[in-house]
Design a protein that fits this description.
The protein is an alpha+beta fold. The protein is built from 5 helices and 6 strands, in the order αααβββαβββα. Strand 2 and strand 3 form a beta hairpin.
Length: 181
């Protein structure tokens, strides 16, 4: 719970096989506190998901700063996204789509501007209960036919979708950078 201290979190993470130190642990502890404030109980699966999310952001070219969605009947789904690049410069884009995720991905594409096709999209809960984390897994295919997968987890499925898409795009960007060397 949110009353668990750093030592309790460190002990539980080590019992799960994770050895995290320094600023990485502090970042994870803050993410844990945010999650614990939203949920009554944090499960091992939640901790594993937090560690995975932290690791995915370590070498990311783009990270999600914020996302705002407006949708409903009869509204047109609209997404406003703020991303930061590796130099901490922020970029904002707004787009509409057939649904909130479509609008979100179109807004991200305005910023990242890398050709790809979304070939798979799946959502599942990480833990049980109404306050469970939702994990989104996606696959994108680039213009060369290469497939890149991405994962994202959050209490909000739209935010999970944004994180998963960015994770896949960051892998695609990293692959292209390595290929160019």
């Amino acid at each position: 719970s949110a009353r668990s201290g750093r030592a309790a979190l460190r002990h539980r993470l080590e019992a799960l096989g994770f050895h995290i130190e320094g600023q990485a642990f502090e970042d994870l502890y803050n993410a844990f506190l945010d999650l614990a404030d939203k949920k009554k109980e944090v499960y091992d699966e939640d901790l594993e998901s937090l560690v995975g999310e932290h690791n995915r952001n370590q070498t990311a070219t783009y990270t999600l700063k914020s996302v705002q969605i407006s949708c409903g009947q009869p509204l047109i789904p609209t997404a406003t996204v703020t991303l930061a690049d590796s130099e901490d410069r922020e970029f904002v884009a707004c787009a509409t789509g057939t649904g909130p995720v479509d609008a979100l991905y179109k807004a991200v594409n305005e910023i990242v501007d890398i050709e790809n096709d979304l070939t798979e999209f799946a959502v599942q809960s990480v833990t049980r209960g109404i306050d469970a984390l939702g994990e989104v897994t996606i696959r994108v295919t680039d213009s060369d036919g290469m497939v890149f997968s991405g994962r994202g987890a959050d209490g909000d499925i739209i935010v999970s979708s944004a994180k998963a898409y960015l994770n896949a795009l960051n892998r695609l960007i990293s692959h292209r950078q390595e290929k160019a060397k």
